[in-house]
Design a protein that fits this description.
With 450 residues, this protein is an alpha/beta fold. The chain contains 16 helices and 17 strands. It has 2 domains: 228 residues, Type I PLP-dependent aspartate aminotransferase-like (Major domain) (Aspartate Aminotransferase, domain 2, 3-Layer(aba) Sandwich), CATH 3.40.640.10; 120 residues, Aspartate Aminotransferase, domain 1. A 7-stranded mixed β-sheet has the order 6-12-11-10-9-7-8, with helices on both faces. It has a 4-stranded antiparallel β-sheet with strand order 13-14-17-16. A two-stranded antiparallel ribbon has the order 1-2.
């Protein structure tokens, strides 16, 4: 019973299923998935208005948050697919519910694509988020009370790296390492000294605001020296790894945790990569220890994203992301900001707005008023709370997805500088630039369906 599927390129992603009999085609019921805005308007105009207003916000302002990106229409279609209806606790071939034959194939496809893409022996594609992936990694390798060495939060570590407000800080004894006060780079000698002093059960390498590549080989050597597991929290650089624009932690780390959004340009979700020796422990830590039913529509969308990331076009994209970030960093320095570490190797830039006599929240608010969206961040050795941070964090992934290049990055740097100085013309210029590179051209007002 062959099935043929077609989809247009407009605001509706539609499909028609045809059942072919003995030399005769019978039109089956029309089905729709993806952003079916007409149905949403009819059913829930209030929520539809919010959704379309968000599309307008994304389409009329510069999205420079380092943790965000624009998914492809194919990823969105998978997210809104009938897989959203399926309950599938367990793993392919061993589910706790019936009717999982097709979602089993989808999950196997996602896992296979991930292992090939990153050169891993095993992939678990079920984590609902990056934090869920890290939680599962800890659950697989550690016991409550174990010592863990990770980047200190004020130096750029994530909540799951020992925050007292997070499960990690409550269940484990975290020791924080940091960066050199002059260079802003990880001080591997001090990491080694801390490891020898505290003998952690695991060492975590990864950060939410470190714009340089970690030296995974150095971390592996330190971990081996003290008999620790090495966990790479690669939530931010994983998409660059997929495109060959960043070093791959898989050959060095016992477990690699990541997200499928950010640079990877997939759905919001998590991913764990490991060797065959840890596969069973990782799988059991995800289900049944930390999660219940897998989100099969998200897993299907992850499979789409992994497939897209394996293409030469994505490799070129990843290289452009880095080139754009480096150009943007240089432009921000020209605008009077202090760029930490003197630049970036990745999609991410962190900068200090103190030279402009601003704090981070004021800087973010001024940029937001000008339709330039970015984040604040802690700066190593910056002012201690309750004093406000003077750090901001920007990313080049989303604007690169829109098709912007280095020429536009120079213009964006000037817009950020002007916004920080409260130039009233910036809002119009930012909107004009974004509309010249719409994230979803077919969804823009007046666009003709393809």
């Amino acid at each position: 019973m062959p099935v043929t599927t077609s989809a247009n390129q407009g605001t509706h992603l539609s499909a028609r299923t045809e059942v072919r009999g003995e030399g005769e085609a019978h039109p089956g019921p029309a089905t729709r998935w993806g952003p079916d805005y007409d149905a949403l308007r009819r059913q829930d105009p209030e929520l539809a208005g919010l959704l379309l207003a968000e599309l307008d916000r994304q389409s009329t302002g510069l999205q420079l948050i380092a943790a965000e990106n624009f998914t492809s229409p194919a990823v969105l279609a998978a997210l809104g697919s009938p897989f959203a209806n399926k309950y599938a606790e367990g793993y392919p071939g061993a589910r706790h519910h019936g009717g999982c034959e097709l979602v089993d194939l989808a999950e196997r496809l996602a896992a296979e694509r991930a292992t090939v893409l990153f050169g891993a022996q095993h992939a678990n594609v079920q984590p609902h988020s990056g934090s869920s992936a890290v939680l599962a990694a800890y659950a697989a390798l550690l016991r409550p009370g174990d010592t863990v060495l990770a980047m200190a939060l004020p130096q750029g570590g994530h909540l799951t790296h020992g925050s007292p407000a997070n499960f990690s800080g409550r269940w484990f004894d975290f020791v924080g390492y940091g960066v050199h006060p002059k260079t802003g780079l990880i001080d591997y000698d001090k990491v080694s000294d801390l490891a020898r002093k505290h003998h952690p059960k695991a060492i975590v390498c990864g950060s939410i605001s470190y714009p340089r590549h970690p030296d995974y080989a150095a971390f592996r050597e330190i971990a081996d020296d003290v008999g620790a597991f090495l966990i790479a929290d690669a939530a931010h650089p994983l998409g660059l790894v997929a495109g060959g624009a960043a070093p791959n932690p898989v050959p060095y780390a016992d477990v690699v945790c990541g997200t499928t959004h950010k640079v990877l340009r997939g759905p919001r979700g998590g991913l764990i990569l490991c060797g065959a020796d840890l596969a069973e422990r990782i799988d059991r830590a995800v289900f049944p220890f930390t999660q219940g039913g897998a989100q099969m529509h998200t897993i299907a969308a992850k499979a789409v994203a992994f497939g897209e990331a394996a293409t030469p076009a994505f490799a070129a994209y990843a290289q452009q992301v880095v080139a754009n970030a480096q150009t943007l960093a240089a432009g921000l320095a020209d605008e009077g900001l202090t760029v930490t570490t003197g630049g970036t190797d990745t999609h991410m830039i962190t900068a200090d707005v103190a030279p402009l006599e601003l704090d981070g929240r004021t800087a973010r608010a001024r940029c937001a008023a000008a339709r330039v969206v970015l984040d604040t961040c802690c700066l190593p050795y910056g002012a201690a709370p309750p004093a406000p941070t003077t750090g901001i964090r920007l990313g080049s992934a989303a604007v690169t997805t829109q098709g912007m290049g280095e020429a536009e990055m120079g213009r964006i740097a000037k817009l950020v500088g002007a916004a920080l100085r409260e130039d009233t013309k910036v809002r119009t210029e930012a909107t004009e630039l974004t509309r010249a590179f719409p994230p979803y051209p077919a969804a823009q007002p007046g666009a003709e369906p393809g």
